[in-house]
Amino acid sequence: MSNISFARLKQKPLILITSILALCGWIVAFGGACMLKVLNGAWWVMIYQLCITLGHWLVFMSGTVPQYRMAMMAFLASSIPLLTIQVDYVIQYTKSNIPKIPATAYVSGYIILLTVQYTWILVLGSDKSTFFGRLGHMEQAPLSHHPHQEHAAQLGFEPEFYSEKLNNESRQSQPNSAALNRALYPLNSTTSVNTIAAIQKPSLGPIEYTEKVQALHAYNASAQDPNELSFEKGEILEIVDRKGNWWQARKSNGAIGIIPSNYFAQH
């Protein structure tokens, strides 16, 4: 949980008011509990209410309501019965066994907490397109400090390949056709991202094909992957190196692309 800011509470007056009321209600109830001494589990309920109140403050101020919304509602659902039982018990026995002033403070604080928590459930449990949902919908905190990678994830790119694509676009005045095709046709799971990036990356000097390999089997390139090369059994191709499961290769007719390493042996 990061980027905690009180300014987020100011954006939603209802959340700000209820958060302040919850804290004030707890303080009033705590004062009453201290005067009443130990009262049938009152201290456990009191500590639980403090944790819920402070926890909601942190979630609201960090802008992570969408991530923790269900957990918040679960805690509230267990809190309301505890508060109701305490309020009912104190009201029922106030006349005979319990001092009136501390009991009134205790009950008043818990009634404030109950009112706030019912409001929070109504707001958090409503879709943001509804009236109550809009009252409590807060701007979500960014999950990452790398907007390019977030955008890449939305488009389905692997982060490494997408950053490589951005670098290519910044160095080229014309878009690379292979990169455009790759955007239209996502990478196969068996294709090496590093190999594709290496092919699309403009080199600072001529690429040297230093080794020759011979095809052990015939292979037809995938129609969805324009970077793959087709070849016949026994055909000899030149490769740059043997890194990864896919190698950058050049055929005798000058065609350049990638080939699966398990189809070849050293020539």
From TrEMBL:
Question: What cellular component terms from Gene Ontology apply here?
Answer: plasma membrane
Q: Which UniProt keywords apply?
A: Cell membrane, Membrane, SH3 domain, Stress response, Transmembrane, Transmembrane helix
Which superkingdom heads the taxonomic lineage of this protein's source?
Answer: Eukaryota
Statement: the UniProt record of this protein carries the keyword Membrane: yes
- Cellular compartments annotated: Cell membrane
Q: Predominant location of this chain?
A: membrane
User: What family is this?
Assistant: Belongs to the SHO1 family.
Name of the protein in question: SH3 domain-containing protein
- Biological classification of the source: Eukaryota, Fungi, Fungi incertae sedis, Mucoromycota, Mucoromycotina
